[in-house]
Write a sequence for this structure.
């Protein structure tokens, strides 16, 4: 992948789009790459992308927006098609839920949701409860070096099982928090709400080292 033609987009239907945009643009600039994040709202915008970020927010709303309402199934189908052709995806929190192949809900038990089913992971939504049960804690992530990563968990899910091709980046007795499968990356927490750019750097590396 050539640095001069790289294009990363962010699914900008709902959620913390701006925070990802600021962080990814800073990472691109820092690497001397003259490219800015594209806000993606229409299926055809995905054609130009090497990587797509799916932000945190509310995955049920995003599910509906990608698969039911404005575009029919076009946006969801287009994301799936582009991933087949090698587009990288980074999902954080609600984004991680959206790219999983199966999700259950800890709070609202009876629930079904359209998912993009890109990554061979299963998740439980709202694992720690509601908004007031959000928390922050440092995470050990070997792949990112010795410095602990600030884990910001907001109505976070947990990853309960992963397929054989999935690399676990962060886990402890509580569960699995970060995973990578080929060019797909997911965290149950929010790197974009910290000032630690290592996950966004890793995502860029995944795109460039193709
Ligand atoms: N609880 C939200 C959901 O299920 C995720 C929250 C978040 O992205 N911070 O979609």
């Amino acid at each position: 992948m050539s640095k001069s033609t790289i294009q990363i987009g962010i699914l900008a239907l709902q959620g913390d789009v701006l925070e990802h945009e600021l962080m990814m643009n800073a990472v691109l600039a820092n690497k001397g790459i003259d490219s800015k994040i594209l806000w993606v709202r229409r299926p055809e915008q995905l054609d130009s992308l090497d990587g797509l970020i799916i932000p945190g927010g509310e995955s049920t709303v995003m599910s509906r927006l990608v698969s039911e309402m404005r575009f029919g199934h076009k946006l969801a189908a287009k994301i799936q098609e582009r991933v087949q052709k090698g587009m990288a995806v980074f999902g954080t929190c609600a984004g991680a839920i959206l790219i999983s192949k199966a999700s259950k809900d800890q709070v609202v038990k009876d629930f079904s949701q359209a998912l993009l089913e890109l990554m061979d992971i299963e998740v439980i939504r709202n694992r720690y409860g509601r908004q007031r049960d959000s928390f922050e804690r440092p995470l050990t992530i070997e792949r990112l070096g010795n410095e602990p990563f600030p884990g910001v968990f907001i109505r976070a899910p947990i990853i309960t099982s992963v397929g054989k091709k999935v690399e676990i980046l962060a886990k402890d007795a509580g569960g699995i928090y970060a995973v990578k499968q080929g060019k797909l990356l997911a965290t149950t927490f929010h790197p974009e709400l910290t000032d630690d750019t290592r996950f966004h750097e890793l995502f860029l590396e995944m795109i460039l080292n193709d």
User: Anything to note?
Assistant: The domain at 3-208 is CATH 3.40.50.880 (Rossmann fold). Helices lie at 17-30, 59-67, 74-84, 94-99, 198-208. Residues 167 and 180 are 5 Å apart (CA to CA).
